[in-house]
Design brief:
With 315 residues, this protein is mainly beta. The protein has a single domain, classed as Jelly Rolls (Sandwich), CATH 2.60.120.10. Helix content is 9%, strand content 47%. It has 3 helices and 25 strands. The strands form 5 sheets. Strands 1, 13, 14, 17, 18, 19, 20, 21, 22 and 23 form a 10-stranded antiparallel β-sheet that branches. The protein has a 7-stranded antiparallel β-sheet with strand order 2-3-4-11-6-9-12. A hairpin with a 2-residue loop joins strand 15 and strand 16.
Length: 315
């Protein structure tokens, strides 16, 4: 383990609560990952729930993993649907789409609990303008496995663990796992040595590596060189394991656009403003609302404005 980053709590968009270990001023990204947000847990009272209305994306992927609540989404490519508890949506924005994720009528009117994660995965330059796509895996189809002693359980969103492979296909090698350790449980993580790896604890505390470095709820542990690490929890814990192949490329970033150069950012803004990324039609929005009558908000953490100003510089 090379460093520990303690997440900070803040509000995003119209006021939903997140815990964010990165990006920060000190840690702008952890190649190939651009952002990790834990959304909630938050209990909304009637009339409080907020979502993310129409907003663009280009040049990267968003991964929404719902623990509690549901999300209704629609986009300018005609996709629409619901992400329910335990489900995953892996959205490749690629060349660009306009996307919307909104609370259900039920959550808006009656309130409810929301908890989940959103991860942003950078795309290498050769894939920045790839065709957008969705992969949506319902909870029952997310592969799971339990250790022989019954003390470690994993849900495999991407990659491989405890003899099971993920159902998600990724553009670059990615590991995304949700581990639960019971008291005195241990897992031994095997990760290719060319992957940049980290783990984020969101319940309890763990001890990482031979030196038993303690990492607690709300902290991200960045791992260093090697292909193996042990994680133990004396009292029980739940954490994410994230690993991926770094792109090693320049990152030019502005709100919902992540490219390699300033010129590409300016082109993305122009393409959005001119309508070349499309729009979410009234028909698609209405069909999505009627089809998914009871969904709750989990939102992407993009620039919420639908009319972003031109970028002044890469960030």
């Amino acid at each position: 383990m090379t460093r520990v980053i303690t997440s900070h709590r803040q509000t995003e968009g119209a006021g939903f609560v997140v815990r964010r270990p990165f990006p920060t001023v000190a840690v702008p990204h952890l190649d190939p990952f651009l952002l990790l947000d834990e959304m909630g847990p938050v209990d909304y009272a009637p009339g409080e729930a907020v979502g993310a209305p129409d907003h663009p994306h280009r040049g990267f992927e968003t991964v929404t993993y719902v623990l509690e609540g549901e999300t209704e989404h629609a986009d300018s490519a005609g996709h629409r649907g619901t992400i329910g508890p335990g489900a995953v949506q892996w959205m490749t924005a690629g060349a660009g789409i306009v996307h919307s994720e909104m609370p259900s009528r039920t959550i808006q009117t009656e309130g409810g609990r929301v908890h989940g994660f959103q991860l942003w995965v950078n795309l290498p330059a050769r894939l920045k303008m790839t065709t957008p796509r969705y992969q949506e895996i319902v909870a029952a189809h997310v592969p799971e496995a339990t250790s022989h002693d019954g003390l470690a359980h994993v849900r495999v969103i991407a990659g491989h663990a405890l003899g099971v492979d993920a159902a998600i296909d990724t553009h670059i090698p990615i590991v995304y796992q949700d581990w639960t350790l019971r008291p005195r449980g241990t897992t031994h993580l095997d990760l290719a040595d060319d992957l940049a790896a980290m783990l984020y604890v969101f319940s309890g505390a763990v001890e990482v590596g031979a030196d038993a470095h303690r990492v607690v709820d709300g902290q991200l542990a960045v791992l260093g060189a090697g292909d193996h690490v042990s994680v133990t929890s004396p009292d029980g814990a739940r954490f994410l394991v994230l690993a991926g192949t770094p792109t090693g490329e320049p990152v030019a970033r502005y709100g919902p656009f992540v490219m390699n150069t300033q010129a590409e950012l300016e082109q993305a803004v122009d393409d959005f403003r001119s309508g070349r990324m499309g729009r979410i039609t009234h028909t698609a929005r209405r069909a999505s609302t009627l089809t998914n009558a009871s969904v709750a908000p989990v939102t992407t953490l993009a620039d919420r404005s639908t009319e972003p100003p031109p970028p002044s510089r890469p960030s």
